[in-house]
Amino acid sequence: MADATCDIGLIGLAVMGQNIVLNMNDHNFKVAVFNRTVSKVDDFLANEAKGTKIVGAHSIQELTSLLKRPRRVMMLIKAGDTVDKMIEQIIPYLEAGDIIIDGGNSHFPDTTRRTKYLAEKGILFVGTGVSGGEEGARLGPSMMPGGNPAAWPHVKDIFQAVCAKVEDGTPCCDWVGEDGAGHFVKMVHNGIEYGDMQLICEAYDLLQRCLGLKPDELAEIFTEWNKGELDSYLIEISSQIFAKKDDDGKPIVDKILDRAGQKGTGKWTVISSLDLGQPVTLIGESVFARSLSALKDERINASKVLEGPAAKDATDDRAAFIEDVRRALYCSKIISYAQGYMLLRAAAKENGWNLNFGGIALMWRGGCIIRSQFLGKIKEAYDKTPELENLLLDSFFSGALNKYQASWRKAVVHAVELGVPTPAFSTALAFFDGFRSARLPANLLQAQRDFFGAHTYERVDKPAGQFFHTNWTGHGGRVVSTTYNA
User: Fold this and answer.
1) Distance, CA of 68 to CA of 192 (rounded, Å)
2) 3-class DSSP assignment, residue 404
3) What Å distances lie between residue 183 and 41, 112, 229, 455, CA to CA?
4) How buried is residue 437: exposed, middle or buried, by Cβ count under 10 Å (0-12/13-18/19+)?
5) Which among 64, 83, 219, 350 could disulfide-bond with 93, CB atoms 3.0 to 4.6 Å apart, if both were Cys?
6) Structure confidence at residue 484 (pLDDT)
7) Would strands 124-131 and 142-147 be described as parallel, antiparallel, or unpaired?
8) How many angstroms separate the CA atoms of 292 and 422, rounded?
């Protein structure tokens, strides 16, 4: 039997798994690897892992026999039933105090269930979000671990060594919370990523449709934007996408079919927001925008039947319009993150998680897809006011919205006048106007509910929590219905 000298075992040698393993090896951790298709292990050792300390295993039993105690087994495999099946295969070769880590994109309720299930067997479980794609996995991802807190001291050194670091060397990885907290934070990260991508797409669409800008011009604009407030990974790669040419010298972006795919994490975020009664409207619109893009054939047919406004120039002042769009993008981004943080706050309350909101922003500062300069401002906001009720109430963010809102409104008005769809820009602005309204028309809505269903209402001239019913027609009875608060 081989000596148990490996620091960690990893199951799953797809591209993310391979890159994380090579990253761990670079940081002087000895890793044992296994893959269900065993030939992949030998192939990996003969090629990408050649000359490293990485050890191959041809069975789970062999893998676990190579590990120091407490044994740490990390899975980077497809989320869902596959994870449960793999856990069942690993359990017989572990003992109390050993640790199983799920680094895939699992749904947070599954992680909560697995943490409890394994705790009953004396095994510690960690569900960690890993963001940054292939490059992040290789050079330093953002990691969001949650699960059984007793596991954290045993995985902390490895996780914080391999993850991305911000300017002062602080790792983009810290303990998030119990049960499914890590995967919940990763889910919200992915939802915000959906929002960021949709907002960038709307800015692109406005500039190309309203000003007729070509990809080369857009590449220059986005490169410039990336030097300021919008400095981020997604703006940076968008500028590179616009500049990339196909073999015939024409921009690749113009040749890509406008039908988006999705893996489900954005949808999970929106469902969770509905469950928790949080108006995460921008991520919702971003998910729906992808669904609408998928109706390509129907849209082509509709474009022949449904008319838009007559074509006209968006503006005489191109530079001013470009700046309006930039500001609209920035303001909408603020709203998206504020909504994401509303969801995190509600989930923490619902599940009893003690989430470090500033720390989460720091975890997202480097390595991950939504990394941006902007996240530093969120960290500062929560450092200044740890119990901050809403990000929009922080002086930096409220100041930016108050300063830029005229441009934001102009961009949305131009879009409406020219028939360019901007669902995320528009819903962000509607949320801003709703959130800053001391009074909304829900008083009429409550009257309607009471009229047809005797659902009752509260009154402005009576203490909160007292409910009233009006006999609106003179024919109704005095029986009232019940309600619930989402």
Assistant:
1) 38
2) helix
3) 28, 9, 29, 38
4) exposed
5) 64
6) 55
7) antiparallel
8) 13
Active site (catalytic) residues: 186, 193
Q: Which amino acid is at 304?
A: K
Tokens found for residue 359: 């720390």
Amino acid at 483: T
73, 66 Cβ separation under 8 angstroms:
no
Higher pLDDT, 4 or 115: 115
Instruction: Specify burial of residue 316 (Cβ count, 10 A radius: 0-12, 13-18, 19+).
Output: exposed
Question: Residue 40 — φ and ψ, nearest 5°?
Answer: -65, -30
Scored b (16 or more CB within 10 A) or e, 386-425 reads eebeebbebeebeebbeebbebbbbbbebbeebebbbbbb
State pLDDT tens for residues 48-79. 999 999 999 999 999 999 999 999 999 999 99
Token pair listed for 391: 């990000």
Helix H, strand E, coil C: the string for 345-379 is: HHHHHHHCCCCCHHHHHHHCCCCCCCCECHHHHHH
Tell me what the mean pLDDT of segment 201-230 comes to: 97
Bridge partners of residue 56, in order along the sequence? 33
Report yes or no on whether pTM surpasses 0.70: yes
- Given pLDDT bands bounded at 50, 70 and 90, which one contains residue 201? very high
CA angle 252, 199, 341 (to 5 degrees): 135
Strands of 177-178's sheet, edge to edge?
A: 55-56, 31-34, 8-11, 72-75, 99-102, 124-131, 142-147, 177-178
Phi, psi of 334 (to 5 degrees): -60, -45
Show contacts of 390-395: CB within 8 Å, 24+ apart: 390/338, 390/341, 390/342, 390/435, 391/334, 391/337, 391/338, 391/341, 392/334, 392/335, 392/338, 392/432, 392/435
Tokens 């479980």 sit at which residue?
Answer: 125
